[in-house]
## 1
Amino acid sequence: MTTTVEAPPQGKQAPVARRPALQTDRVLAAIGKHSILIALGIMFLAPFAFVTLTALMSSDQALTSQLWPRSWHPENFVEAFQKAPLFRYLVNTLFYSVLGTLFMLLSSIPAAYALARLQWRGRGISLVAVLCVMMLPPQVTVVPVFLLWANADLTGTLWPLIIPMLLGDAFSIFLLRQFLVTIPTEYTDAARVDGCSEWQVMLRVILPMAKPAVAAAAMFQFFYCWNDYYGPLLYTNHERDNWTLSIGLATFRNLHQVEWNLVMAATLLVLLPVLVVFFLAQKAFVQGVTMTGVKG
Amino acid sequence: MFRKSSVAVRSTGWRQFRTAAGFMWPAWLGIAVFFVYPLIATVYFSFHQFDMLTIPKWFGLGNYEYLFVDVRLHAAAYNTLWLVVVMVPVKVLASLGVALLLAKLKRTASFWRAVFYLPALIPPVASTVAFVFLFNPGTGAVNTVLRWVGIEGPLWFNDPNLAKPSLVLLAVWGLGDWMIILLAAVLDVPQERHEAAQLDGANALQRFRHVTLPGISPVLLFTALVGVIQTLQYFTQAAVAGTVASGQATVGQGRTKEFGYPADSTLTYPMWLYDTGFSQFALGYASALAVVLFVFSLLFTVILLRRFRAYAAEGSVQ
C-alpha cells in the first residue's frame, strides 16, 4: 500500500500547474492526491474527537452508544476534580516533573559536554556505559534499587524517582552529546586561547549555542516524568497521597465508580498540557527525535 | 629525552582526565549506584530466597528451576514474545508507509507531520484509557461505527484472542516518533539517485526497492532494534488496558490481581516481574526473572551498539 500514489515526474513544479486550470480543478486534484492521507489523518484524529465529545456528555448519555452530545456539560471537568483528588495528583506530578527536569539538566549537561567536547582517556567506554544504561530495561535492576530506597526509608514517596536525576539521565546525556559534537571546534578553540577554563567554555560558548538541544532534552524529560506510570506505581502504590496523575487516571474509573464522561474529561486534562507544549515548541521536539533516533 | 616527553604526555593525559572527571563524576556515580551495583546484586539475589522482611537465604538454582514450572511466567513470556514478533514489525511497516506518504509532500508537509505525530505524545495511560473506552464492546465509538456498516464488532480488549491485537492498534496509533525518524531517513536519500534511476526507466516501485530501501536500511534496522528493546519493557499500556477493561480496582491495595485481564492475555514479562517482586515480595525469584530479561536485552543491545556506528555515520544529524 506504500507507493501506490502516482508519483509525478520529479520536476520542481508539478506539470499540471501549467494549464490555466479552474480553482476547483486544482482543489479536486489536490484532494485526489491527498485522499489516502486524509483518510488516514481522520482515523488518527478521530479518537481525540470522540474523547472530547464524550467528555461533554451527560452521565446518562455516556452510557449509550450515541456519539454526539444531546446536551453539553462542560461542568464535567470540574466534577472530575471532585470525584478524585486530581488536584493533589497534579501537584505531585508537577513536583516530580519540574524537579526531575531541573536536576537532570544540572547533572547531564556537564556529562554531555565531557563526552562531546573534551579529549580524555576513558571517554569511549563512558559513552558505551551511558548507552547501555539507556538501552537496558529498568526492570533488570529494579529489585536492588528498590531495596536501596527501602533502606533509606524513601519508598512511598516520589524521591526515588527524583534524586537519581542529580546523577545524570542516560537518554538526556546522549541527546545533548549528539548535538554538542556538531558544534565546530573553532568556537571553543578561540575561547580557550583567550584563557577560558573548560567550565567557562561550556557555560559561555557552548550552552548559548546549544539552546535548542537543551530545550529538547528538558521537554523530553518533563514529558517522561509527566507520563511515567511504572516508576510512581512502583514506589507510591500504597501511598495514595503521593500518587501522580497517571496512577490517578488509571484507577479513576474503577476506584471511584465514575461514568465514562468523567473518565474522558480526566483523560483530556492529563493530555492537554502535553499538547499545548508541543504546539509551542514543535520544532525543537522533532529535531530531538531525529537527532537520537530514540524517544525517551 | 624520549622518556621526558613520554612523561609529559602522560601528565597532560592525567590533567585532561581530571578536567573531564570534574564534569563526569555525577554521571559516573549514577552509573555505579543505579546500574553497575544493582546489576551485580541482581545476579547475587537470584540465587537467594527472601522478601522485604527477611535477609537473603542461599537457594542455589532453586529460583531458576522454578522458571520452568511457573505457568503464569510462561503466559507472560509468550505474550512478550508475541508482541516482539507482531507489534514491532507492524509498527515499523506502518511508520514507513506514513513516512513515504509524507516524503512526497511540499507545502502541507508540516501540517501532516503534526497530525501523525500528535498521538505519539499522548501520555500512555491517557491513550490506553481512551482506547479501552473507544473499543468497549457495547457502546464504544468503534463498534458503533462498525454497526453503521452492518458489522457486529468484536469484544476487543475483553476478548483473550483480541486483547493483544488491540494493543497493536494502540501502538500503530502512536507511531509518530518512529515515523519522524524514518521520514528524516527517506528525505536524506540523495535526489540525484532517484533521478538517475528514473532516467534508467525505473518505475516508482523499482525506485523504492533499489534506491530508497538501501538508503534507509541502516535507520530501519536501528528503529526495529530499539523497538524490540522497548517491547521487552512493555508494561504501562498492557497493565492499564487490563485494569480498565476488567472494571476492577487493582492498585493501592497490594495485589495486582487484574494484571493480564482477560485470561492472562495481556500479562507481559515485566508485569509478572513486578507482580512477583512487589506484590508477592518473592524478591529472589523476581531477581532471577530480571537476570533472564537482562540476557535477552543485552543480546539486542550489543547488536544495536554495533549498528550504532553505521547509524551515526549515516548522518542522522542535520
## 2
Amino acid sequence: MNDTIRLTPEVDAFVAAVRARFSDLGADEREDLLDGLEADMADLVAERGPEALGDPDAYAAELRAAAGLAPAGPGRRQWSTTSPTAVLDAASTHWSRLLDKMPADIGSAVRAARPAWWVFRAWLAVMWFNYTFARWAARPDVAWLPTPSWGLGLLILAVASIVSIQIGRGKIWPGTSGLLARVVLLVLNVFALLITFDTLQRVEYSIQDDMVERLGYNGQPTPTPGLTFNGQPVTNVYPFDAAGNPLVGVQLVDDQGRRLKIDPDYAYIDNGERVLAPWLNGRTELYSVFPLPERDWDDMAWEAVGEPTLQAPPFAVLPPVTLDGVTPTVTAPVEAEKRREKKRRP
Amino acid sequence: MDNTQLLKGVLDLAVLAVVDDEDGYGYDVVRRLRAGGLDEVGDASVYGTLRRLYAAGALTSYVVPSESGPHRKYYGITPSGRDQLKTQSDDWAHFSTTVTNLLQGASA
C-alpha cells in the first residue's frame, strides 16, 4: 500500500467541482460524502492518470445515486461559479482544507470542538435576548444566566442549547441546506462572534457589582490617607488621661513606630471654614500631635489665616478608667493645676 | 455485454463481501472489486454505496492519516452488516440458481 498521497491540481479541481454539486446538501451530509474522496482520487490519478477523473457532473450524479440521495435540483448546474452558493462552497472548501493542513492534527481538534461552540452561541443568544429585550434585572450571583431565577435560567439555556445543537447538526433550519439557510446561519454565527466580548464584559460587570455590594470592595481600593475611623477621615483627636482629664500635646505612634497623623488635606472642618495647623519639632511640621490646632481658611486668598488655636474638646472631662495592676499616667491639666495653686495660696 | 444494470442490484452485496474480507478505503475497495472481475464498476458508485451502507449502519468507518496530503477513510463491516451480507448472499444464491435453472431449461 502506498502511504504517500500526492494531491495534484487536477484532483483538487475535481473534488472542488464535485463539492459544488453537493451544495444543496447539509454540511454534515456533504462532508460525509466527500470525506476521503481526495485520497481516493489521488490514488486513481496516480494509477491511471488525470484523464481517468472524467466529468465531475456525471461523477457527482453517480455518487449521489449510489449513496441513495435525491438528484440535484433543476437549474443548479447552470449556476455560475460566481453565484452566492459557489462562493459559500469555495469558502467552505478553503476552510476545510485549512483545517486539514494544520499541524499536530489541530484541524481535527477544531472540528471536534464544534459542539462546544454550538452551546456557547446558544448562551450568547439568550444573554443577548435578555439584555436587549427582556431586561430582567440581573441578579449578580446568577449574572451568567439569562434570568434572575436559577431554574428558569437553566431551563432556557438547556432548550436554547438543544436548538443550537440541532441547527449545528443540520437537523433544523437554518442549519439545513439551501442558500437562504446558509446565509442566515453565517450571519447569525458572525453576529454571535461580534457580541461575544460585549456579553462577557456585561457578565463580568454584574459579578463585580455583586462583589462591591457584598464585600464593599470595588476591585480598585483607594485608601484615604491619614487617620480614618470607619473609613472616614478623622479630623482631630482629643486625648484624655485615665482620670478623664483632657490632654494637650500627645504624640501618637503605632506599634511599628509610625506616626499616626492626620492628612490635613482630608480634614474637612466646619464646611471648610477652618483647616488644621501642625505642631512643630523645630521646623518640621507634625500632624501626629493632638489635639491639632486649627486656623481660619480664607477662600478668596486660598490660604490659612490667623493664629493656630486649640478648640475646646467635645467633652470637658470623661469618666475615669482603671485597669487592675496598672498605674496610669495622670497628668494634671494646666487649668486644674492653676486652680489648685490658687486655693493653696490664700 | 453491459453489466451495469445487473451490477446495480448486487453492488451492496459485492461491497459488503469485499469489506468483510478485509477493511478498506474507497479506492482500495474499487480495486479489489475490479480484481474480482467486476471491471465495469464505477468509482463513484462504489463510494456512494460505501457511504450509504455506512449511513445504514452496515459499515463502520475510521480515518487513517497519511504522512502527507489528505487522509484515507477506511470502512469495516459491523455485525449488522455481516447479517445483511449473510441474508443477501443466501438470496443471491437462491436467485442465481433459479435463473440458471431457467436458462438451462430454455436452452435445453
